[in-house]
Structure formats: structure tokens, C-alpha cells
Task: structure prediction
Amino acid sequence: MITDEIRQYREQWGDRLLILGHHYQRSEIVACCDAVGDSLELSRLAADSKAERIVFCGVRFMAETADILSRAEDGRPCGRSVWLPDPAAGCPMADMATEPALEAAWQALSEVAGEPLVPVVYVNSSAEVKAFCGRHGGSACTSGNGRRVVKHFLDQGKRLFFAPDQHLCTNILRELGYPPSAVAIWRRGLELGGLTADRIQTARLIAWDGCCPIHAGYTIQDVSTARAQHPGARLVIHPEAPSPVAALADQTGSTRAIIDAVRRSDEGETFLVGTEQHLVERLARDFPGKTIHPLRPIVCGDMDRTSPEQLLELLTTWPEECLVQVPDAIVPDARTCVERMLAL
Result:
């Protein structure tokens, strides 16, 4: 079997190799990984690892973050390399916000607002976007710590520019108790993002109009249908879902929070889980004493790209196109963006 061959190569490399897998990967990939987690958790493991080669079974922005945190503070390589089994595995949401577009929008917003806005970027973004954030005094955030990061700056009286996920942003503000008027959405392709000067000056936060095409697909009707089919089930949903949908859940939370909610629940409890299908299926398998249903089955095509065949090919030939190297020049600013988050 291919998985047996992968394990053989894994054993040959010993401590010189670390294979990481995101929760949304296929189960046959997860079975071959040394550690499974969310993107930032795995990047931290990469940074602390002494392995020569780090294989990231996920998507490109995750491997980039692992590379950034694995470098020296000045951006120089430290004898470790990061590899992505499928170099075409990207993230549509990350692609919705480019560094040049964000820079232009930030400049325009800061001019109209009369003060520089503090950029906050979701870790689901490119290295270039993280560098933009770092050099303008901002911070990264995750779906798990987004409320803490946003609250930190708002409590200081700052006004924020959040990218690329508008739904995570609006859910954070809703959970912090802010009214819908506190956030304005910057629409790509429109002059001043389609906003008036007055709207820019009164909003506490301007959110880029990106989204996760997977989680953003959930609808109020999905919730209604699922609750009718499974009365009494507890609905937990990822905060990348649209705010009107997330507001109907019993709990919103990161991938880690969703897993913990199921793990800590009583035997016999029933869940509706609003996130990627590979994880939902794994939860149902790992907790047989609990009933786990998807809110609606959704699969991330980019996460699904990584196959055992690709992983085996990588471990046997190490093709150059699978090597992920963030340009040295942007590593310091990108690293600053992430480290500000870790310090909060």
C-alpha cells in the first residue's frame, strides 16, 4: 500500500523530517502525518522543529507561514526547508486580497479617515499580505484569537482595516457587542471601495470583501433544514460563515474550538457541524459515542488536492516546484505581523 511506502520513507528520514497535516486533509493523509492541527499550530511546530525538511500537507499560505517562522529574525534560512506536496494547492480567500490592492486601499482609507488605520490580516493570507500588515504596524489573527486581537486595538481607540475575510470580521464585531454600523465593507473594483467619506470616517472597522467560498456557502435555510432533520442537535459553526448564519448557531469557533466542543461533550450528544467535510467525517469516526452530522456537506477542493500518491512522490524525488520559499526581503515584515499576534 502507498501509505506503507510513505511510512517506510518516513522512518528512513527519522528526526530529519517532519510531516504536518491540516485538519481538513483526507484521512489517509492524516494517518501519515507526525502532527495534525490548524495552520498556526502547525507553523509553530515547524518553527520549533529541528528537522531539515518540513512537509506541510495543506495549502500554500500555511506552508509560507511555516517557512516564515522557521527563518532567522532577519529573514535568512536556518538550514530548514518547507515543502508542499501539491504546489497548486492554494486558498481562494487568500487570493482575493493581494498586497498591491490592500496597500492602495489602506492609503486611500487612511487619507480619508485622517489617520492611519491599523491593518489586521487573517492568517489565511499570503506572505506578501502579512508583510504589508507588518510594516504598517498591524497584526495577524486567527479564527480562534481574532476577538482578542481586534478588541486589543479597538480598546486603544484605533480604527482597523481587516482583510481578507469579511465574515470573520463581522462575526467578531457582533460577538464583541458592536452594532452592524460599526463595520463597513470595502468592495473591490469600486472607487473608495464603494464607500462615502462619511461612512469611512464613522466606521470603527473597514473590512475587505473577501470570503471563504466553502464556509460562505452556508445559508439560513441550511440551518433551518438541518435543525428540522435533527431536532435537539447542538449547532457549532466556523466563524467564516456569514454572520446571519453564524448568529443562529449554539456556538461559533475555530477548527480547534469545534473539535474541543465535541470532545468535551457528554456521550450521546448530537451535533450539527458547520465546517469542512473531511473534519466532520473524522469527528464522527473518532467519537462513536456521539452523533455528528454536517450542517451541509462541503469539501474544500484545495485541501482535497493532496493525495497519498503526491506525498509519496515528494518523499522520493523532492521536486523543486514543491519547495516553498518566501522571498528573503519580505520575511522580516511578515514575521513581525505574526509575532505581534503571538505577543497579544
About this structure: The radius of gyration is 20 Å. The longest helix spans residues 99-113. The chain is about 45% helix and 15% strand.
